[in-house]
Amino acid sequence: MTAAKHALRPDMSWILDPLLVVKGVRHGVVLSADGMVTGASPGLSREAGEGASAMMSALQGAARSLARELSGDPRTTVEQVVVATDKGFVFAVPAGPDTVLALFADHGCDMETLSHRVQLQVAALGEKAVHTPSYDRGAAS
């Protein structure tokens, strides 16, 4: 009997590096659409990262469904989710069709700076995907 081959997900932690230095950002995770951790901030425990990824995946799905229902347009997409708490903010942005970038920042964080840097990192992630040799938009599944 042979074991099924599973493609290893690349470590996407690099995308968090420029974001974790923004004043007030405590932790971040990069997750796949199905809630699997593909990158995490260094001080985040594995259990916390996995739990956060699973919950963020569910939250993204709920936000997508809610937006489509309330807008009346099934093509509506979620551009970001922000959850305000008494300790700070959860900030999540889709970073491609199958990736979400989520961060927690305290109230001292400059959200404008963070938002700008997140957009730069999302663009960098898209650029990396386009220039990866195995990436082929025309490949049949």
UniProtKB/TrEMBL annotation:
Pfam families: Robl_LC7 (PF03259). SMART domains: Robl_LC7. It comes from the Bacteria. Gene3D superfamilies: Dynein light chain 2a, cytoplasmic (3.30.450.30). Signal peptide: none annotated. Residues 13-105 form the Roadblock/LAMTOR2 domain. This is Roadblock/LC7 domain-containing protein.
